[in-house]
Amino acid sequence: MCHVIVTCRSMLWTLLSIVVAFAELIAFMSADWLIGKAKPSNSEDVDNRTGGSQEPYHPTLGIYGRCTKISHMQLSRRDTLCGPYAENFSEIASGFWQATAIFLAMGIMILCAVAFVSVFTMCVQSIMKKSIFNVCGLLQGIAGM
Questions:
Q1: 34, 51, 100, 107: least surrounded by Cβ within 10 Å?
Q2: What is the 3-state secondary structure (H, E, C) of the chain?
């Protein structure tokens, strides 16, 4: 019975480790760190398909990406374009955001390494009399700081 509980716990821990690593990666890539005020809608912002006005547009900014509204030539319809505004590290918005990028990238790398190692804990639970769970848990705590 004890072996089944340990196996279920390690499977749950492995699954959650993978989910958290991907969630951190998605948060890093997101352009929704700062969300601007809604832009007032113009008469041009009418949706031609429904005849109603579109949702108000909120410009967004992330660590190195942003979303802006651009106008297309066809029928004055506007669309949102998301992508990087920083082509190199020195173009990131501020020193604080550069530090955030460094620390988040290091944390994500640690979390991905732990998620990778946690898959192997299903078969091997200790190396050189050290519990892999304890070491990986410590690394996850460091990555979460």
A1: 51
A2: CHHHHHHHHHHHHHHHHHHHHHHHHHHHHCCCCEECCCCCCCHHHECCCCCCECCCCCCEECCCEEEEEEECCCCCCEEEEEEECCCCHHHCCCHHHHHHHHHHHHHHHHHHHHHHHHHHCCCCCEECCEEHHHHHHHHHHHHHC
pLDDT of residue 132: 79
Q: Which residue has the tokens 């998301």?
A: 82
Low pLDDT (below 70) residues in the chain: 1-6, 40-55, 71-78
CB 83 within 8 A of CB 65: yes
pLDDT attached to residue 102? 93
∠ CA 86-36-85 to the nearest 5 degrees?
Answer: 10
